[in-house]
Amino acid sequence: MALNKKPVNGMKDILPEEMQIRDYVISVIKETYGKFGFTPMETPCMENIANLCSKQGGENEKLIFKVLKRGEKLNLETATTEDDVVDFGMRYDLTVPLVRYYSNHSNELPSPFKALQIGNVWRADRPQKGRYRQFMQCDIDILGEASNLAEIELILATTTTLGKLGFKNFEIRINDRRILKAMAAYSGFAEEDFDNIFIILDKMDKIGLEGVEAELVESGYNKDSVEKYLGLFKGMNESEDTLAFIEEKMTGFIEEDVKASFREIIESVKATKGDHFELVFDPTLVRGMSYYTGTIFEIAMPEFGGSCGGGGRYDKMVGRFTGKDVPACGFSIGFERIILILMENGFKVPNQSRKVAYLIEKGVAGEALCNVISEAQKARQDGTQVLVARMNKNKKFQKEQLTAEGYEEFREFYKEGLKN
Amino acid sequence: MALNKKPVNGMKDILPEEMQIRDYVISVIKETYGKFGFTPMETPCMENIANLCSKQGGENEKLIFKVLKRGEKLNLETATTEDDVVDFGMRYDLTVPLVRYYSNHSNELPSPFKALQIGNVWRADRPQKGRYRQFMQCDIDILGEASNLAEIELILATTTTLGKLGFKNFEIRINDRRILKAMAAYSGFAEEDFDNIFIILDKMDKIGLEGVEAELVESGYNKDSVEKYLGLFKGMNESEDTLAFIEEKMTGFIEEDVKASFREIIESVKATKGDHFELVFDPTLVRGMSYYTGTIFEIAMPEFGGSCGGGGRYDKMVGRFTGKDVPACGFSIGFERIILILMENGFKVPNQSRKVAYLIEKGVAGEALCNVISEAQKARQDGTQVLVARMNKNKKFQKEQLTAEGYEEFREFYKEGLKN
Predict the structure, then answer these.
(1) What pTM value is reported for the model?
(2) Inter-chain contact B16–A41, Cβ cutoff 8 Å?
(3) Residues 360-419 in B contacting A (C-alpha not used; CB under 8 Å)
(4) What angle separates helix A194-201 from helix A204-218, to the nearest 10 degrees?
(5) What ipTM was predicted for this assembly?
């Protein structure tokens, strides 16, 4: 029986052309984040299934690829639920594994710990165009830094990296879960309704103010509250300084030092950033993950409809592992989207070295062959990329192919000696 | 309930110190193999389970981490065997996925295709010291090159890379499955016994000539054949030129062009290699995988008991996917062993840039903070690695820690201004 040539459903093979771009982007990421003092680290791709199903991953927990138990531990006869037959699962993000890692090794790590993770994650989503069930994430996180220096450094590191990759005219949108909550509390909503209200608010981009208002009313929330809530957003839109407007309105609903710290993040980034992006306070920004406790942010690219990454503060997650909370804040780049945009824009990786192809006629053997190889080895030592290949019957076609691969120079070796 | 801080049983978290070395080794590998024209490529970490269980992986097929079916496809009630409940599996090597990839994309790939793969593989081995159930492999392969240029280039590329990583005094042992078979045929063994005889021969390193002889006799093979077989190895040990000895003895049992090609590989590599390793013909070299069809080779490091990598020619594997054979040859570096040896030797990654830590007193805020960050951004642009951190109460300890991390210079920022 012939075997199946296709990759598993919903996952993809990466061809050399894309791979070159991916490798280049990764090298720029490592180099730039390195300059900010972020340290690469890695965890296994699998986690204990209980860690993955602990309600920290939201909807992603429904999409876990689960790993079958092995040997004596597996008993299919008596098994009735998935829990009976699996022990591990593929990670669906890099945050849960990072927090486990930090909890396990905090004594061996610097404080604060500035982590850089680049790795694959898996989600058993319904396969669809441009969305894969294995994809790469690229996260930076700072653990053990309570002050807003974490947010400032994360935003600057991420935007500097995007700049190095040639991205410009993008926006970083920033908000704070505590501002979100204060606005809802100010409007008179009950705390147990906040999450649901934020889910509706999150649609502002798509359905506009009226749409959000209609959905809130439809959901049965108090009309006065809805009106007061929407009034805030309308007021902001009309005010010259959105942040100042909210700061004033929220007095009494939000702590003064939270306010001051949030303003300091915005002002510090604005004062020190390049002009390739804007930092924008966006009180409609929600971010899905329930683990966020403070600042949240998102990258919006003009080339791309949705978000190209994001992050925020999650001060309560280490405590789930250790019983003791540790301040934590992270920023994730949408690696696959970045690659997609670069590919669509016809991005070419800068040439690192001269590329020469040595084509050797079939009959060249023995000492003559040694001489060619020896020459190739010398050229490689001097920094040239040398492809040594047998000359095809259709040499013209072979050279066209190699030219397309970036070989700029050819040397041909014949039994009678070098020809050009 | 507190979550589990440990990685899954048998897999490991990689701490920053090791990660630095891994990243450095990967960059040297990519750069050096790149100079030989090898192109990075990648496949998903999962494969269809039927591809993994097709008898190409030998013993590894017993060690597959299998992935549970999802949704409607999973029916635990009626399931009686593992096949009923799984559809994918984690790859246990990079060769099966490479061949599937090549079969799927050969029209889009150059010919010959020189592939570089660096990626994790998984094997559900019994956990033991220094051996992990997720580990990295690093393979180069040439598909579509029938001539011995493939072997020569693979050996030179691999040994050049090892040299760049500082390895010396190692050996590349080389043999050919066809020489192995010719020697067994010459001795009068039946072809169906070859595999079993080679398994015993493979122990020569450990149990010596007498041990191999005893095991062969014990297994019930014809005593004359055993004597003739062992006579070959004794004869070689006494002869000055092992290869010439075998070439002469095997006349009639091996094709002349196979002989000539094998000799050419050895002579070409010897004539062009550096002096950091030796290439040695080793007629006792077997290599486990049954898919090898010709040349086989292995890296033997003095610092390490066992093999540190190996490979060979496997001309019949693409045909399993496409019905049409394509010549193929590969060389795999034992990545994890390389890392282990470097770690044990106290290897330090060469410093890429100056590392400076800016320590900021807690009270520094507003414009003063902006100034510090702005300065850090400028220094980073000029190539310096700058860590911006809040000053700890125990500043002395903090500086000691940072010094251990490689920070060579400190700048301290106080409310009253810069101190040093």
Answers:
(1) 0.94
(2) yes
(3) 360, 362, 365-367, 369-370, 373-374, 377, 380, 383-390, 392, 401-402, 405
(4) 140
(5) 0.93
